[in-house]
Design brief:
By secondary structure, the chain is α+β, with helices and mostly antiparallel strands. The chain has 16 helices and 19 strands. The protein has two domains: 3-142, Nucleic acid-binding proteins (OB fold (Dihydrolipoamide Acetyltransferase, E2P)); 166-314 and 376-485, BirA Bifunctional Protein, domain 2, CATH 3.30.930. A hairpin with a 4-residue loop joins β2 and β3. The longest helix is centred in the first third of the chain and has 25 residues, at 3-27.
């Protein structure tokens, strides 16, 4: 018999025993699933942090049993609640013989309520001397063996609820994630931005170069898309008279999955009228360094063994200069598409045939040679217009745009523009996107005539930026994979035999 089959038989036996315990309680009229409410008075952390205040006073706590020691007529158990864990002393003298007998049948994983007074054991451990113990939920499926047995990463992602119970450091990551989001919102509020919400279902797949998810609205008999980005709607709000807006929400991209990418992810975009991409760089520096200082107490962090300094005054360098610095190719001297294709072949840089312009090849050179080298915070500025359909051109170099991306630890964390507000130029760029899509480019956006209409009404000079918040959380929590910072990452369903 295989090890997996043996484990399955063991699990089935343990679950059978637990169900029998439940049935016995139900026959006595003590079904824990009939309980609808339990009035706890304190948490374990409150008690431990303020022992002098609670010593010898009655409290009521609730949590999951994570440890238990039976010693005849007296026992110890440890429960874990939302914040901490605390030990309880339980005896037949306090509970009575019948209640104590029932307590001894409780299993690791059961959820109980305890009422008793606070004291310290001889080993100085803060504990609760139980006067009453109530079974609130019977756990029918055992936790992983020896409590810390859940090591399989795939299973941990699929059963996050169990992962949170048996691996406390996972819970710490998500508590820190919540604090990061709170500080981001605090920062944006102090900067004068208003938080808004825009639709996740759209009729045009645009806002960035990405393959969208397609769905269908039955009543309207209309194909729709899960949004790639909220960009165009947020800029519509700037047209409407809101000078500073931001949105934190889900975006969806029907693309590959790896340690940096999940099909749905949390992003923040913010836009400020009368600002440009230089202002966005300043804001990004203040935001990320400020959040790090607030939640970690420092701007000098270690990510996967590499020291990174988030202190402001981050490096700013053009994409063309960065390429020249790393691999010696100077695109200032390469003026035509043909010259660019030739140097790509010479250097072994691959590109798609439908993306064979000088601008696309510059971008490929950057991704091939430069991106992984950008360890300390760096703004790569001035992108080719071909890869930036929503960005304002540079006055002195119209083949480039006022755009930057932020790189830390060899990864992109943010993308920002001096927003294109010329409706004629924007319409022509949309047309090129449509042509690219017709030629087979699945990442090309569509035509959004209503957005062109909004630009015709008038968009003031505007700076805008998007920041991948899941990646930022990865950075600040030293998490190796995006799945480590998502409660429920996208997973392929397991085959189930029923």
């Amino acid at each position: 018999m295989s090890e997996n089959n043996e484990q399955e038989l063991d699990m089935n036996h343990l679950m059978k025993v637990r169900k029998e315990k439940l049935e016995e309680l139900q026959l006595k009229g003590k079904n824990p699933f009939d309980i609808t409410k339990f009035n706890k008075t304190h948490t374990s952390k409150q008690i431990k942090d303020n022992y002098e205040e609670f010593e010898q006073k009655d409290v009521t706590v609730a949590g999951r049993i994570i440890a238990k020691r039976i010693m005849g007529k007296a026992s110890f158990c440890t429960i874990q609640d939302n914040e901490e864990k605390i030990q309880s002393y339980v005896s037949t003298n306090d509970l009575g013989e019948e209640s104590y007998k029932e307590f001894k049948t409780y299993d690791i994983g059961d959820i109980i309520g305890i009422t008793g007074f606070v004291f310290k054991t001889r080993t100085e451990e803060i504990s609760i001397h139980a006067k009453e113990v109530t079974l609130l939920t019977k756990s029918l499926r055992p936790l992983p063996e020896k409590f810390h047995g859940l090591k399989d990463m795939d299973l941990r992602y699929r059963q996050r609820y169990t992962d949170l119970i048996v691996n406390p450091e996972v819970k710490d990551t998500f508590v820190l994630r919540s604090k990061i989001f709170k500080e981001i919102r605090n920062f944006m509020d102090k900067e004068g931005y208003m938080e808004v919400e825009t639709p996740m279902l759209t009729t045009v797949a645009t806002g960035d170069a990405a393959r969208p998810f397609i769905t269908h609205h039955n009543t309207l008999n209309l194909d729709m898309y899960l949004r790639i980005a909220p960009e165009l709607n947020l800029k519509r709000l700037i047209v409407g008279g809101f000078d500073k807006v931001f949105e934190i929400g889900k975006n969806f991209r029907n693309e590959g999955m790896d340690i940096k990418h999940n099909p749905e992810f949390t992003n923040m975009e913010f836009y400020a009228a009368y600002e440009d991409y230089n202002d966005m760089m300043d804001t990004a520096e203040r935001l990320i360094s400020g959040v790090a200082e607030k939640v970690l107490g420092t701007t000098k962090i270690t990510y996967q063994g590499t020291e990174i300094d988030l202190t402001p005054n981050w490096r700013r360098i053009t994409m063309i200069d960065a390429i020249k610095e790393v691999c010696g190719v100077d695109f200032n001297t390469i003026k035509t598409d043909e010259e660019a294709r030739n140097i790509a072949k010479e250097k072994g840089v691959e590109y798609e045939e439908i993306k064979n312009t000088r601008g696309h090849i510059i971008n490929e050179f950057f991704e091939t040679f430069v991106e992984d080298t950008l360890i300390q915070p760096t703004f790569i500025i001035d992108y080719p217009v071909e890869v930036s359909p929503l960005t304002k051109r540079k006055k002195d170099a119209p083949e480039l745009v006022e755009r930057f991306e932020l790189f830390i630890g060899g990864r992109e964390y943010g993308n920002a523009y001096s927003e294109l507000n010329d409706p004629i130029d924007q319409y022509e760029r949309f047309l090129k996107q449509v042509e690219a899509k017709e030629k087979g480019d699945e990442e090309a956006g569509g035509m959004d005539e209503d957005f062109v209409n909004a630009l015709e009404i008038g968009l003031p000079p505007t700076g805008g930026m998007g920041i991948g918040l899941d990646r930022l959380v990865m950075l600040l929590t030293d998490s190796a994979s995006i799945r480590d910072v998502l409660f429920f990452p996208t997973m392929k369903p397991l085959a189930q035999n029923k």
